[in-house]
Specification:
498 residues; alpha/beta; Aldehyde Dehydrogenase, Chain A, domain 2; six-stranded mixed sheet; 16 helices; 39% helix
Length: 498
């Protein structure tokens, strides 16, 4: 097996690492790489490289930065297939899904290419006699990103293009389950002409995470992952005086009203629940059937789920790949079994799925559970697998109340042909991202991504305008240029506009 090293100051390095972990191929169940796990000294070295690069890069003109960003954008676009391949091999998702992930990351790069406009400040002439005022934003310095396995290219690209465009330097700690995409992106940054030390990658586990959270030279931390770890990152990093955006878990509901086109709704629910094997923070894991929509919806969902083609990610006819690890597969199967024991009806059962020729792969088939209630483990836990739980309510208000009672507030959707019902839903749910007949309402790059409640810790959402605000801080300047003899004398009173 090959060994995956860190990327520090523009080159691969093993540094002080002696511990390793295995990167698996989830489709075959076989190990494919050894990954070096960073020690504190490796994190120190990466942060030091970022500190050394921070001064010159922050002083580079916005034109110089965008020149590099445009080159990086073209290189990523030219390497979509390469990136999709390593994502599929290490995560398991099908190639078409991996290509889509890279595209959604590219959209953030394209947004960041407009940084000269995004960093424009404000100017006010003659706020007082002979006094003008203006404001602008400056980079923070060294910032860090800690990213999850489910989007090894897209989520880092939701962070570092904006951070780097704003004049910061970046240290990325990607998931140890699928680290190769980050290394490809590091190579492309270098090819694009990014100075050494502006972008660094350290692989690792809790040792690396804690070292970044505690490091005095790291000014801000961006995190995406589970809610317990998001809360931990937020508490530890803010205690160390850092700015933090920590995106946590989700339990995303899709409400289906009786006036919805049930075939349309079932088609999109199936895609939203089983795409990427359900390993998306915006996956729909709970369908709420309102009134008489329930039985008819289940009949259509049953057929849709059974027709999903499950296989290795690189197979051209696969629509859904394996689960990322055997441990995750076993946890998902255990939750389905618990749901069955607690009274849910297993309408479509994906447990025990074996894919011919890939018998050792980490597969779970699409699973549909009916008659789920909010007390069941399959509902209270974030499953992060291809499992769709169906709940029933009598009316829309009860469906909204069900969603609002859930501790998560990441994403939700409603299927309806009624504009009035959709408007009531959009305004009534306590959720950060809402779709109307769109089950996975991930905002475009020029908006910002983020949930409410236990799905977000910190005050800023990720990428878009809030990303620019997160990676910069404002400075207000008040200016006077005296001319000739001055008639206005200074006083000890509070200054006011005159």
């Amino acid at each position: 097996m090959t060994t995956i090293e860190h990327w520090i100051a523009g080159q691969r390095t093993s540094g002080a690492s002696s511990r390793t972990s295995i990167v698996w191929n989830p489709a075959t169940g076989q190990p494919q790489h050894d990954l070096l796990l960073a020690e504190v000294a490796d994190v120190d070295r990466a942060v030091h490289a970022a500190v050394q690069a921070a001064g010159p890069w922050s002083e580079a003109s916005t034109s110089a930065r965008t020149t590099v960003l445009f080159r990086f954008r073209e290189l990523v676009a030219a390497n979509v297939e390469r990136l999709a391949g390593v994502i599929s091999d290490e995560h398991g998702k099908v190639l078409s899904d991996a290509r889509g992930e890279v595209q959604r990351g590219l959209e953030v790069v394209e947004f960041a290419c407009g940084i000269p406009t995004l960093l424009k400040g404000d100017y006010s002439d003659q706020v007082s006699g002979g006094v003008d005022a203006y404001s602008f934003r400056q980079p923070l310095g060294v910032v860090a990103g800690i990213t999850p396995f489910n989007f090894p290219a897209m989520v880092p690209m939701w962070m570092f293009p904006v951070a780097i465009a704003c004049g910061n330097t970046f240290v990325l700690k990607p998931s140890e389950r699928d680290p190769s995409a980050s290394m490809v992106l590091a190579e492309l940054w270098t090819e694009a002409g990014l100075p050494e030390g502006v972008f660094n990658v350290v692989h690792g586990d809790k040792v690396a995470v804690d070292a970044l959270l505690d490091h005095p030279d790291v000014a801000a931390v961006s995190f995406v992952g589970s809610t317990p770890i998001a809360r931990y990152v937020h508490e530890r990093a803010t205690a160390a005086g850092k700015r933090v955006q920590a995106l946590g878990g989700a339990k995303n509901h899709a409400v289906v009203l009786p006036d919805a086109d049930l075939d349309f709704a079932a088609e999109h629910l199936s895609a939203a629940a089983f795409g990427s094997a359900g390993e998306r923070c915006m996956a729909i894991s709970a369908a709420v059937a309102v009134g008489p929509a329930g039985d008819a919806l289940l009949d259509v969902l049953d057929g849709k789920a059974r027709r999903v083609r499950v296989g290795p990610g690189r197979a051209p006819d696969s629509e859904m790949g394996p689960i990322v690890t055997s441990e995750s597969r076993d946890r998902i199967v255990g939750l389905v079994t618990a749901g069955e024991q607690q009274g849910a009806k297993v309408r479509v059962d994906g447990r025990g799925l074996v894919v011919a020729g890939h018998e050792e792969g980490f597969f779970v088939g699409p699973t549909v559970l009916d008659q789920v209630d909010p007390s069941m483990d399959v509902y209270t836990n974030e499953i992060f697998g291809p499992v769709l739980s169906v709940l029933r309510t009598d009316d829309l208000d009860a469906a909204i109340a069900l969603i609002n009672a859930n501790p998560y507030g990441n994403g939700t959707a409603v299927f309806t042909s009624s504009g009035a019902a959709a408007r009531r839903f959009v305004r009534g749910v306590h959720v950060g991202m809402v779709g109307v007949n769109v089950p996975v309402p991930v905002p475009m790059a020029f908006y910002s991504f983020g949930g409410w409640k236990d799905s977000l810790f910190g005050e800023h959402h990720i990428h878009g305008p809030e990303g620019v605000a997160f990676y910069t801080r404002g400075k207000a300047v008040t200016v006077r240029w005296p001319e000739g003899p001055q008639t206005q004398r200074a006083t000890l009173d509070m200054p006011t506009a005159r």
